[in-house]
Amino acid sequence: MMGPPGSGKGTQSARIAEHFCVPHLSTGALFRDALEKDPESAVAKAAEVITNGGLVDDSVVMDVVASVLERYECNVVLDGFPRTTHQADLFEQWLVSVGKHIDRVVFLHVPNDELIERLGARRTCRGCGYIASLRLEDADTGIPCPRCGEDLYRREDDRPTAISRRLAIYETLTAPLLAKYVETGQLSSIDGTQAPDAVFRTICETLTNPI
Ligand code: AMP
For 199, how many CA atoms within 13 A lie in the half-sphere containing its CB? Predict the structure, then answer.
């Protein structure tokens, strides 16, 4: 699942995983988890850059993804990886070495002004990880998670300076990857500005139709 920060990758990946009964591997969630639960680990140390919107080192990301994917024989929804052309190359080599492949690359397209608005009002649940898209005026009113009732918090990297950095990094390092997947015929580009249910339906249609 590809798209700029705030395009709905996390929300849609979770729904796809649930719908098709497959694991959801979010590299961002994995790094946040390492930082919270095991801050002295090598992965957490490499992930410290995420709080100011930077990217984790390509080879660290590849190692982490490989160690998770090695556990599965089934399809997996990859959310937020690969994120640079170097990661894509490392991933391609790894896939060849284990005899696996990418079925589809889904790209969620959302214009920048909408991304900035969404990220400013996005809150994440401390309990279940639910991503809440709030109205800006409600974002800091202490609304609990609609799913489990736990606190919603603002991710460090959803603060204004980190948001601008993430969007700039996305444009420079991640967006160029799209051309690669257009060339291989694996890319499905979807209008991510539709309502979440409509985005989900479009993704499901894309995934169930052959390329
Ligand atoms: P996300 O939850 O996908 O928005 O990711 C949150 C943050 O985790 C990103 O801004 C990066 O700092 C880091 N991150 C997630 N995935 C990757 C990746 N594939 N490569 C490098 N850094 C990543």
Answer: 25
